[in-house]
Write a structure and sequence with these properties.
The chain has a three-stranded mixed sheet with strand order 2-1-3, with helices on one face. It is 61% helix and 8% strand. Strand 1 and strand 2 form a beta hairpin. Helix 6 packs across helix 8.
Length: 186
């Protein structure tokens, strides 16, 4: 881990978004607006000595992806806030425990469901079928049993099916109305 303070100042001076994870030797640089700077430090996932290399790789992807994805997912969700509020009005159906305090609004709950499901789509596109099956099982278990998002597995499976059936010109953001409609039917 070769972090240098100069990178931090360089990023600020160039008014850029920087992502620096502890598994990297230097931040990744994304130029954006001339008057804005964001620097995200993401600690690496704890490597399990008995785990496979793909597990350890995916663990780091998961942390980085799910946090950064909120920058893309949340504005899209916000454009559907009226429909989301109707679809997830019974918040206890969608989650319990800590999430009721951390995510006190339907939109915030939907954002978590969507961000983690989008990560699942990313895994679907970038892992072997065997690795994907293992990761999908882990994500579903983690979200339902540990984070208490009660309908995550069904939500995740539904979004994956919508993704598999989308036309070549469609993007994930085009699937929002369909997944919100599914939520409304639950």
């Amino acid at each position: 881990m070769n972090f240098k303070l100069i990178w931090f100042w360089w990023l600020l001076a160039n008014m850029s978004i920087g992502l620096c994870c502890a598994s990297c030797t230097a931040p990744v640089h994304y130029p954006i607006y001339a008057n804005l700077a964001i620097l995200a430090f993401v600690a690496p996932a704890i490597k399990k000595p008995d785990s496979t290399a793909p597990y350890n790789k995916i663990a780091n992807w998961k942390m980085e992806f799910t946090e950064l994805d909120h920058s893309y997912n949340n504005p899209i969700s916000k454009s559907h806030v009226k429909q989301i509020n109707i679809a997830l009005h019974d918040q206890k159906k969608w989650g319990s425990g800590l999430i009721s305090g951390i995510y006190p609004a339907p939109l915030l709950i939907f954002d978590e469901y969507m961000t983690w499901s989008i990560f699942s789509l990313y895994c679907y596109d970038h892992l072997s079928p065997e690795e994907f099956a293992q990761e999908e099982q882990y994500i579903n278990h983690f979200m339902e049993e540990h984070r208490k998002f009660h309908k995550f597995e069904a939500f995740n499976r539904t979004l994956l099916e919508l993704y598999k059936k989308k036309s070549s010109g469609q993007r994930v953001q085009d699937l929002y109305p369909a997944i919100i409609s599914w939520c409304k039917q639950q």
